[in-house]
Amino acid sequence: xxxxxxxxxxxxxxxxxxxxxxxxxxxxxxxxxxxxxxxxxxxxxxxxxxxxxxxxxxxxxxxxxxxxxxxxxxxxxxxxxxxxxxxxxxxxxxxxxxxxxxxxxxxxxxxxxxxxxxxxxxxxxxxxxxxxxxxxxxxxxxxxxxxxxxxxxxxxxxxxxxxxxxxxxxxxxxxxxxxxxxxxxxxxxxxxxxxxxxxxxxxxxxxxxxxxxxxxxxxxxxxxxxxxxxxxxxxxxxxxxxxxxxxxxxxxxxxxxxxxxxxxxxxxxxxxxxxxxxxxxxxxxxxxxxxxxxxxxxxxxxxxxxxxxxxxxxxxxxxxxxxxxxxxxxxxxxxxxxxxxxxxxxxxxxxxxxxxxxxxxxxxxxxxx
Length: 369
Description:
It is a single chain. By secondary structure, this protein is an alpha/beta fold. It is built from 16 helices and 8 strands. The protein is globular and about 55 Å long. The termini are far apart. Mean pLDDT is about 85; it is low at about 1-25 and about 345-369.
């Protein structure tokens, strides 16, 4: 979901009132009308404002390779690849970003301006499109995203990429999908149960960036208000079952149930005005830390003003979003070993996160044991 929690709640409540009693009866029988209603409400709302974002691109200019057909044919989802114009920095670590939209809306074009900013810091950044519901059901999106990862790794030489230094990333429902793909890569038992053959190995996944995500589906089942209603309707469409909470899909999607010490080093953030932050992101951060996974948090106090809503990190005209961006690129430098800032040495950047670097060293020792 792509608006602030308060704004989205108001819009959904208004839409439900307009729908009327007869329409409400239809919504109880079939997830498609509700899914399409929600998609219409959020259409365009998740687009990153280009004019407010592009001034923040660092010194590197960025080249875009748009609409690469990773599934091999027209009419299927495609991906965009953004590369910094600096041959001296190749091969480039890869950041694979998965857009949000409650599994039923959103496009890679929505987040493209922000991905250009990240690429301007010296990384190869992918924006991956995937099939959304109700047209496609679980686990179609997970399998497609895994295929996109395999596609780009196979073409690493063509684009000057390092196939052994990958960071997954995502926002909102895209954060859940990124976390699920990370589980597929790092946990063979989970990959088998989900029916996906991972396109990369655990040693090639350096880290993961999770912004404003939905991770704990058991919590979603209890969530009150229009936002909870919207998520549950979206999950009905996505899983293909009205009783979605009892499906194997819901179990596989519930990230806190499946993470263990093998999960990659994690950057996790959410706004203090986003209902999902305290119910989803903070508990996942706690869970990962308890498991010994290196975690970098970026949260704000509950009473911080102004309130930071859902997807606050894309509003780079605001200082809090710029703080999040700088924390993100420092994390990328730590986990990839490549300086995120032009003209800055990796050692200087890594010093910004000494604790994380020490955690990474300990984790690598555990994995090698």
